[in-house]
Design goal:
Elements: E1 5-6, E2 9-10, E3 31-36, H1 49-56, E4 61-64, H2 76-85, E5 91-97, H3 106-118, E6 123-127, H4 137-149, E7 153-157, H5 161-165, E8 170-173, E9 179-181, E10 196-200, E11 204-205, E12 208-209, H6 212-229, E13 232-238, H7 244-257, E14 261-265, E15 292-299, E16 302-307, E17 310-317, E18 320-330, E19 358-359, E20 375-380, E21 384-395, E22 401-406, E23 415-417, E24 420-422, E25 424-427, E26 430-434, E27 444-449, E28 451-453, E29 458-466, H8 467-470, E30 478-485, E31 492-494, E32 502-505, E33 516-517
Parallel strand pairs: 3-4, 3-14, 4-5, 5-6, 6-7, 7-10, 10-13, 13-14
Antiparallel strand pairs: 1-2, 8-9, 11-12, 15-16, 16-17, 17-18, 19-20, 20-21, 21-29, 22-25, 22-30, 23-24, 25-26, 26-27, 28-29, 30-31, 30-32, 32-33
Length: 522
């Protein structure tokens, strides 16, 4: 089987041998993560350290909360005893936040590392590690060095994987006037120390399904860094009421991405509120088999992977909470979209068998103008990428309606737009190619006129973009895109900024439509 997927998205066929798991590879065991910020000695109502140890013994990777490292903490001595009583196979991490919330001094952080080390932990969990918490690469690497100097592993928690693990030049200044990563310095996180990265709120955040465009992008980027740096990847999802559908979805997603550990827990991580002092050992789905028999398949709003016993899949369309779920089908195989040619202007019936890849919410602009994006469809045939979207507001096509296309899946090339590097742009009915000297230059050169319909009185719009004009003629090519309308107030964006981008993969050179995923950009 030819592998054509990965790294948070998809790449040209033949370019991903080192990334996608090999056929008939063993399914690695997913370890149980326990992020617990309550008093360890009273977990699940324990009345003795022995009872607490028995609770934590069910977990493989344990993260304990802030302040326990201080000898003055009322549960410090108990925590030392509990750590000492756990089996040697358990990995225990002590919490230290390094971000703007408390903005601790570096000597203070180093002192906490020393105190945690004295308690017998295996590593330090550095919270607020990313640029969004004003932490520069210099600060990241300095605190990571403190852990390594003590012989401890480091685990980083930051929302954007690239901010913690990537080496992209970022001259932007934080609130203290320091550049995040002016020289493109690599991370100090390393496989040599067993370092890791946490994907917080991966598929479910506080009881709400996370946008597939973003969680799939985050997962793919994390997998990329696991493959290139050797760091371990951990994931957690949260809801104050445990729901088995949430738990199963996250577990199956992490299994297919081959992450190291997973947990579904309470929004405040057992510190306060619902679930305070509680650490649940949720049942996980099982019976999948022992080996992968194929790579990950990213289809229309779903992720699938075949095993020796069947098919694991997770699914969901952003904007439709009822569409989310997961399953295992004994003997199942990865699905294929039916052959379905599209004729621009030929009516909507030729789209009938396809489902939207994304449903953008009604923005109800105070000053209407242009489209208010709704459901969006994408597919391809042998020559073109086809795009369709609906709008509750009737509009006329003009230059305010844009489609931004990242055709090389590299946000460091093209015009920088949030998580995209736009190599091409559609304005109205014309395709343009990026010609700027830098990523901040809005400079595009015309390439070709496009087939679009209609051009006025629009509520249902479709266009065809030649694959050759995008440089996507080969099977296995891929791109990410975002829709914007600058005519309305407020402007409309699909997906909204911070939610990644829509993503399509060109699987074939015949009339079988592309497998579509709603993912984020590299």
């Amino acid at each position: 089987m030819t592998c054509v997927l990965l790294r948070g998205g998809l790449v040209l066929s033949g370019a991903l041998v080192a990334v996608c798991a090999s056929v008939a590879a063993p399914i690695p065991e997913l370890e149980r993560l326990a992020i617990y910020y309550g008093f360890p000695s009273s977990v699940n109502g324990a009345t003795s350290n022995a009872q607490a140890i028995a609770v934590f013994d069910d977990f493989d990777v344990i993260i304990l909360g802030a302040g326990l490292e201080l000898p003055s903490h009322p549960d410090h001595a108990n925590t030392v005893a509990i750590i000492a009583g756990l089996p040697a196979t358990a990995e225990v991490y002590g919490y230290i936040d390094i971000g703007v919330t408390n903005w601790r001094t570096l000597p203070d952080i180093q002192s906490s590392v020393t105190l945690w080390d004295a308690m017998g932990v295996d590593g330090i969990f550095f919270d607020e590690f990313g640029y969004d918490f004003q932490v520069t690469r210099s600060r990241q690497n300095t605190v990571t060095g403190y852990a390594h100097a003590a012989g401890l592993a480091a685990m980083a928690n930051g929302y954007i994987p690239d901010d913690c693990l990537g080496s992209e030049v970022n001259p932007t200044l934080n609130t203290f006037g320091e550049a995040f990563n002016p020289a493109g310095t690599p991370t100090a996180l390393s496989s040599a120390f067993g370092d890791g990265y946490l994907l917080e709120n991966l598929t479910v955040a506080n009881g709400q399904w996370h946008s597939p465009s973003f969680w799939m992008w985050r997962a793919g980027r994390a997998r990329h860094f696991a493959d290139t740096l050797g760091v371990r990847i951990h994931a957690v999802s949260t809801s104050d009421t445990p729901v088995q559908a949430f738990i199963d979805h996250g577990h199956r997603a992490c299994l297919m991405w081959e992450f190291d550990s997973y947990q579904h827990t309470y929004g405040n991580f057992s510190a306060t509120g619902p679930g305070a002092g509680q650490l649940d050992l949720h049942p996980w789905p099982s019976g999948f088999g022992t080996s992968w028999t194929g790579p990950r398949h990213e289809r229309t709003n779903r992720l699938e992977r075949e095993t020796d016993l069947g098919l694991i899949e997770v699914h969901g369309t952003s904007g439709d909470p009822g569409s989310f779920g997961s399953s295992f089908t004994p003997g199942g195989v990865a699905s294929e979209d039916a052959a379905y040619p599209i004729t621009v202007g030929g009516g909507t019936a030729d789209w009938a068998a396809l489902t939207p890849v994304f449903i953008d919410p009604d923005e109800s602009p105070s000053t209407p103008g242009g489209p208010d994006f709704g459901p969006v469809w994408m597919t391809n045939d042998a020559t073109s990428l086809h795009l369709r979207f609906l709008s509750p507001d009737v509009w006329a096509l003009d230059l305010n309606t844009r489609v931004w296309l990242d055709t090389d899946r590299d946000r460091t090339t093209g015009y920088r737009l949030d998580f995209l590097g736009a190599d091409h742009l559609v304005e109205g009915s014309t395709l343009y190619a990026f010609a700027g000297a830098s990523q901040s230059d809005f400079d595009f050169s015309p390439v070709t006129a496009l087939s679009v319909a209609p051009v006025s009185g629009i509520s249902d719009f479709e266009m065809a973009i030649p694959r050759a004009a995008l440089g996507l003629s080969a099977p296995g090519a891929s791109l990410s895109l975002r829709l914007t309308n600058s005519a309305s107030v407020p402007n409309d964006v699909a997906p909204d900024f911070g939610e990644g981008a829509m993503h399509t993969q060109v699987l074939t050179d015949n009339l079988v439509p592309a497998g579509i995923s709603f993912l984020g950009a590299d």
